[in-house]
């Protein structure tokens, strides 16, 4: 994606606009923890759930209560929450210089083996917002249960430029 200025790549904030994405309100911790910590240029997000206005939007496990499509939708919601939390903490998504790591936890039942297809929902959205050159490494884990009965949980680590301008 190229900005109207010519050959400059579009910024993350501009890409959100171009994609028609309006970020939800940043989520708040549902327990005794903080949702974000920055150490140097690394910015870590706690496990993001598919919540909206403090309420879980999806409940269940892939392969039992939810199908692959619902799993992708739940993960997209969690990813939007991650973007919103990052923006709330660092001020602008344009400060993100790289998506370093994505960890996707999927509550699954029995013989569900399409975890990578569900996890692609997060990777694809992050790619669309930050660009192909900032794609991350990724781990995908199938688990028996997640907090509050959530079907997905997402952890993201970003590299951000320092406020002074360097990375």
Automatic annotation (TrEMBL):
Q: Which residues cross the membrane?
A: none
**Pfam families annotated for this entry?**
YjgF_endoribonc
Among SUPFAM superfamilies, the record links this protein to:
YjgF-like (SSF55298)
Gene3D superfamilies, sorted: RutC-like (3.30.1330.40)
Ranges for domain Endoribonuclease L-PSP/chorismate mutase-like come to 13-150
Q: What is this protein called?
A: RidA family protein
Q: Which organism is it from?
A: Tunturiibacter gelidiferens
């Amino acid at each position: 994606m190229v900005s109207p200025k010519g050959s400059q790549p579009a910024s993350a904030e501009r890409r959100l606009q171009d994609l028609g994405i309006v970020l939800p309100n940043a989520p708040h911790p549902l327990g005794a923890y903080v949702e974000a910590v920055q150490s140097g240029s690394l910015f870590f997000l706690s496990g993001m759930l598919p919540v909206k206005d403090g309420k879980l939007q999806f409940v269940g496990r892939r392969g039992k209560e939810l199908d692959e499509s619902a799993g992708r939708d739940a993960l997209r919601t969690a990813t939007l929450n991650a973007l919103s939390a990052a923006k709330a903490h660092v001020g602008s998504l344009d400060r993100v210089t790289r998506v370093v790591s994505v960890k996707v936890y999927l509550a699954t039942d029995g013989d569900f083996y399409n975890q990578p297809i569900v996890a692609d929902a997060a990777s694809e959205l992050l790619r669309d917002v930050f660009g192909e050159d900032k794609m991350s490494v990724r781990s995908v884990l199938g688990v028996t249960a997640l907090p509050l009965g959530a079907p997905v949980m997402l952890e993201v680590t970003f590299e951000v430029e320092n406020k002074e301008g360097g990375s």
